[in-house]
Amino acid sequence: MEQPGIVVTGVSGRMGQMLARLVLGSDQARLVGAVERTGSDWIGKDLGQAMGGAANGVIVTDDAVSAIAQAQAIIDFTTPAATVGFAELAAQARAVHVIGTTGLSEDDLAAISRAARHAPIVRAGNMSLGVNLLVGLTRKVAATLGEDWDIEIVEAHHRHKVDAPSGTALMLGEAAAQGRNDALENLRTPARDGITGPRAEGSIGFAAIRGGDVVGEHDVIFCGQGERIVLRHLASDRAIFARGALRAALWGQDKGPGEYDMMDVLGLTS
Ligand SMILES: NC(=O)c1ccc[n+]([C@@H]2O[C@H](COP(=O)([O-])OP(=O)(O)OC[C@H]3O[C@@H](n4cnc5c(N)ncnc54)[C@H](O)[C@@H]3O)[C@@H](O)[C@H]2O)c1
Ligand SMILES: O=C(O)C1=N[C@H](C(=O)O)CCC1
């Protein structure tokens, strides 16, 4: 059986290049398209040469419609506006859409849900095995500890990251809220500034650090009386996200239309 053909979007980006190299080196999938935004100086170039290596015959294109039409999967770590457009194209192609993009609005998520009526979408703010294990641990610890334990989530990322808090931090916050039989939207306290008044009881606080080349660090801190518990994930190589994304693209090949996440892909659903 022929290996699934994968299109990587945002191919000149930090994740895009990591994903292209992973798929090109895989014996389970074929790279059949490399898409970048119109105006990118990678358009029309050979991908291998653009990434600083030997030519590989894959030409970078901004014609997402043609590229996606013949794909079995799209791996998409770009921007919210781009991802919404790719979701529509993936749906038309009945191709698996793996969405790593974060910072999606409620409207963006609604558009993605509509697209998921026609094709499988695997979306996760963090596609690493470690973080998805931490999500389960966070839910369990939040469920075990009482409301008198204050939950704070602190994350750090590189200087180029444009959204905050991270998608990972929001995943962890949602898991903590679920552990308390609630939803994050009811408990979330954004980054604090000014005279904030005392901490709202039962809230989940967030803080974000940006600087340097930090790949991704997350602490879920349970603050008690006389003690604290810290659940921590430290990422040092973007390859962990790329491996999760490729695994999701392959996992989705025999799935029906719908919205899935990495807990489904990794078999971690409780
Ligand atoms: N889910 C995860 O595991 C995970 C891991 C890492 C990063 N991310 C997320 O992935 C996204 C990208 O991160 P990054 O560090 O690679 O960013 P980046 O800025 O390095 O790469 C984004 C790429 O998308 C391209 N792009 C933008 N609009 C486009 C369009 N319309 N068509 C094609 N390409 C387009 C940009 O030109 C750029 O090359 C961010 O939202 C980040 O939070 C998620
Ligand atoms: O580098 C980024 O940007 C990352 N984004 C994801 C997030 O927003 O959580 C995953 C970690 C790296």
Automatic annotation (TrEMBL):
<protein>
    <recommendedName>
        <fullName>4-hydroxy-tetrahydrodipicolinate reductase</fullName>
        <ecNumber>1.17.1.8</ecNumber>
    </recommendedName>
</protein>
<feature type="binding site">
    <location>
        <begin position="10"/>
        <end position="15"/>
    </location>
    <ligand>
        <name>NAD(+)</name>
    </ligand>
</feature>
<comment type="pathway">
    <text>Amino-acid biosynthesis; L-lysine biosynthesis via DAP pathway; (S)-tetrahydrodipicolinate from L-aspartate: step 4/4.</text>
</comment>
<dbReference type="GO" id="GO:0009089">
    <property type="term" value="P:lysine biosynthetic process via diaminopimelate"/>
</dbReference>
<comment type="similarity">
    <text>Belongs to the DapB family.</text>
</comment>
<feature type="binding site">
    <location>
        <position position="37"/>
    </location>
    <ligand>
        <name>NADP(+)</name>
    </ligand>
</feature>
<dbReference type="InterPro" id="IPR036291">
    <property type="entry name" value="NAD(P)-bd_dom_sf"/>
</dbReference>
<dbReference type="GO" id="GO:0051287">
    <property type="term" value="F:NAD binding"/>
</dbReference>
<dbReference type="InterPro" id="IPR000846">
    <property type="entry name" value="DapB_N"/>
</dbReference>
<feature type="binding site">
    <location>
        <position position="36"/>
    </location>
    <ligand>
        <name>NAD(+)</name>
    </ligand>
</feature>
<feature type="binding site">
    <location>
        <begin position="100"/>
        <end position="102"/>
    </location>
    <ligand>
        <name>NAD(+)</name>
    </ligand>
</feature>
<keyword id="KW-0963">Cytoplasm</keyword>
<comment type="subunit">
    <text>Homotetramer.</text>
</comment>
<feature type="domain" description="Dihydrodipicolinate reductase C-terminal">
    <location>
        <begin position="130"/>
        <end position="266"/>
    </location>
</feature>
<keyword id="KW-0457">Lysine biosynthesis</keyword>
<dbReference type="Pfam" id="PF05173">
    <property type="entry name" value="DapB_C"/>
</dbReference>
<keyword id="KW-0520">NAD</keyword>
<feature type="binding site">
    <location>
        <begin position="167"/>
        <end position="168"/>
    </location>
    <ligand>
        <name>(S)-2,3,4,5-tetrahydrodipicolinate</name>
    </ligand>
</feature>
<dbReference type="GO" id="GO:0019877">
    <property type="term" value="P:diaminopimelate biosynthetic process"/>
</dbReference>
<comment type="function">
    <text>Catalyzes the conversion of 4-hydroxy-tetrahydrodipicolinate (HTPA) to tetrahydrodipicolinate.</text>
</comment>
<dbReference type="InterPro" id="IPR022663">
    <property type="entry name" value="DapB_C"/>
</dbReference>
<keyword id="KW-0521">NADP</keyword>
<keyword id="KW-0220">Diaminopimelate biosynthesis</keyword>
<dbReference type="Pfam" id="PF01113">
    <property type="entry name" value="DapB_N"/>
</dbReference>
<dbReference type="InterPro" id="IPR023940">
    <property type="entry name" value="DHDPR_bac"/>
</dbReference>
<dbReference type="GO" id="GO:0050661">
    <property type="term" value="F:NADP binding"/>
</dbReference>
<keyword id="KW-0028">Amino-acid biosynthesis</keyword>
<feature type="active site" description="Proton donor">
    <location>
        <position position="161"/>
    </location>
</feature>
<feature type="active site" description="Proton donor/acceptor">
    <location>
        <position position="157"/>
    </location>
</feature>
<feature type="binding site">
    <location>
        <begin position="124"/>
        <end position="127"/>
    </location>
    <ligand>
        <name>NAD(+)</name>
    </ligand>
</feature>
<dbReference type="GO" id="GO:0008839">
    <property type="term" value="F:4-hydroxy-tetrahydrodipicolinate reductase"/>
</dbReference>
<dbReference type="GO" id="GO:0016726">
    <property type="term" value="F:oxidoreductase activity, acting on CH or CH2 groups, NAD or NADP as acceptor"/>
</dbReference>
<keyword id="KW-0560">Oxidoreductase</keyword>
<dbReference type="GO" id="GO:0005829">
    <property type="term" value="C:cytosol"/>
</dbReference>
<dbReference type="InterPro" id="IPR022664">
    <property type="entry name" value="DapB_N_CS"/>
</dbReference>
<feature type="domain" description="Dihydrodipicolinate reductase N-terminal">
    <location>
        <begin position="6"/>
        <end position="127"/>
    </location>
</feature>
<feature type="binding site">
    <location>
        <position position="158"/>
    </location>
    <ligand>
        <name>(S)-2,3,4,5-tetrahydrodipicolinate</name>
    </ligand>
</feature>
